[in-house]
Amino acid sequence: MTAIDTLKQAFNEHQAVITALEPLLPEIAAVADVMRNCLANGGKILLFGNGGSAADSQHIAAEIVGRYKKERRGLPAIALTTDTSILTSVGNDYGFDFIFSRQVEALCTPADVVIGFSTSGNSRNVVLGIEKAREIGAITVAMTGGTGGKLANLCDHVLTMPTSDTPRIQEAHILIGHSLCDLVEAD
Ligand SMILES: O=C(CO)[C@@H](O)[C@H](O)[C@H](O)[C@H](O)COP(=O)(O)O
Ligand SMILES: [Zn+2]
């Protein structure tokens, strides 16, 4: 396969996934409503995931705290993927599985929305973070793909991308993340 073939294949696969997202639009709008209500009522958005999904969590938290497109006040969102002292101490003392759940225990309130990104839906630390958020009574959102994995049965809102290909799932996640930010800061 030539480089151009490889690129064409990725672009075509990407396009097919984005087209197939259409049935998810009502659920994406429902998640945006939940986020808007949370922020209007003094809650905050917590986000986490591994690898590319850690980057997605940070990216979306930055859009919410800073701005997506519109001038407005800063809104509270925290990516639980950024503090290396917390990640290394909790990882070292309790285990990598607990790097998110421990922070959820410390920071989450019932007024919050907790968003777990996992393309497989099965990353143990993401699953445990979501389970802790449920215990606390926060609204939980899964950003996943494929079958949705374990997260699909755990969360109040489940956005499962219509592919099992990790990069294509992540590309759809970031489109949805941006769209959620757009709706969160709409009048
Ligand atoms: O970005 C990528 C692959 O595109 C990787 O860094 C990927 O996020 C990592 O392998 C993650 O550990 C995968 O975890 P998950 O999405 O299954 O929860
Ligand atoms: Zn990636």
From TrEMBL:
Highest rank taxon of the organism: Bacteria
Pfam families in the cross-refs: SIS_2
Record text on cofactor binding: Binds 1 zinc ion per subunit.
Pathway: Carbohydrate biosynthesis; D-glycero-D-manno-heptose 7-phosphate biosynthesis; D-glycero-alpha-D-manno-heptose 7-phosphate and D-glycero-beta-D-manno-heptose 7-phosphate from sedoheptulose 7-phosphate: step 1/1
Residues the entry annotates as binding Zn(2+): 59, 63, 170, 178
Chief location category: cytoplasm
Enzyme class: isomerase
Enzyme Commission code: 5.3.1.28
InterPro entries reported for this sequence: GmhA/DiaA (IPR035461), Phosphoheptose_Isoase (IPR004515), SIS_dom (IPR001347), SIS_dom_sf (IPR046348), SIS_GmhA/DiaA_subfam (IPR050099)
Cofactor requirements of the protein: Zn(2+)
HAMAP family with a match to the protein in the record: GmhA
Quaternary structure annotation from Swiss-Prot or TrEMBL: Homotetramer.
UniProt function note: Catalyzes the isomerization of sedoheptulose 7-phosphate in D-glycero-D-manno-heptose 7-phosphate.
Note: The reaction produces a racemic mixture of D-glycero-alpha-D-manno-heptose 7-phosphate and D-glycero-beta-D-manno-heptose 7-phosphate.
Protein name: Phosphoheptose isomerase
Gene: gmhA
